[in-house]
Amino acid sequence: MWTHAPWQRRFLPHPLAPQERLRAYATWCNAVEGNTTFYAVPARDTVETWALQTDPEFRFVLKLPKSITHERRLGDVGAEVRTFLGAIEPLGPRAHALWIQLPAAFAPADVEVLAGFLRRLPPSYRYAVEVRHRAFFEDGRSARLLERALASVGAEWIPFDTTTLFQSPPTTDMERDAWTKKPRVARRTVALTDRPIVRYLGRDSTDETIEGWRGWVGRVAEWLREGRSPTVFIHTPDNADALLLARRFHDDVRARLPEVEPLPEPARAPAEPPTLF
């Protein structure tokens, strides 16, 4: 996400050398979703540059490759897992959690496969699972089945909250596209571990996005009071203002809990020079 085109020159200095782009992003936010690892395992030397650009406290939530989760459906993937873990090793403590996003076809009947897969993973990493099958959100027995499987290995359940997106018909092209691709499931606000992770998708309207996250502000403040360390990712269909919105969410939480540390002063894009015409 730190190379998201609409942010360049508007929020982030541009042009920047590849080995400086994440460093600039890390002045805006202290965590990032590693979505590109879903499509390809990064080269180890690329990951080394990520580590060099970030403090040890910076959080990467890295998605397992689709070859593991979607193509082989967690079966006979030992070699692929070892390759992935070898590639991300340079991140050290920055690898906050490994994100196992499962396809919508992954149903309650498949939970035992997931449980076996999680038991075979090395305990040196934390794991967080995102499911999209509606039964997990509509059937209490299915939800408890998954919770037990995750709790047995200390894994978290990542909620992807799209309720704000689907609360009214789309009004922009990007919202219409999101309506066709994003899961329509109930909001889930339960944490299983001391490191809950939330993915929130709002609207292209800033006001609607902020209104939709108000419940999350209270929940995150509650988790912090309990001694948990949550990570929250803020999205909109176009993500054009996601950096500003993420910082606004952080400010809203700090308004409830002033002891929460502020985010760093961001490295902004320089103002456009004046012209004669």
Automatic annotation (TrEMBL):
Task: Spell out the coiled coil positions from the record.
Answer: none
Q: Which domain of life is it from?
A: Bacteria
Q: Which InterPro entries match?
A: DUF72, UPF0759_sf
Q: Which PANTHER family would you find in this protein's record?
A: UNCHARACTERIZED PROTEIN YECE, UPF0759 PROTEIN YECE
Q: What name is this protein filed under?
A: DUF72 domain-containing protein
Originating organism: Actinoallomurus liliacearum
Q: What's the source species' lineage?
A: Bacteria, Bacillati, Actinomycetota, Actinomycetes, Streptosporangiales
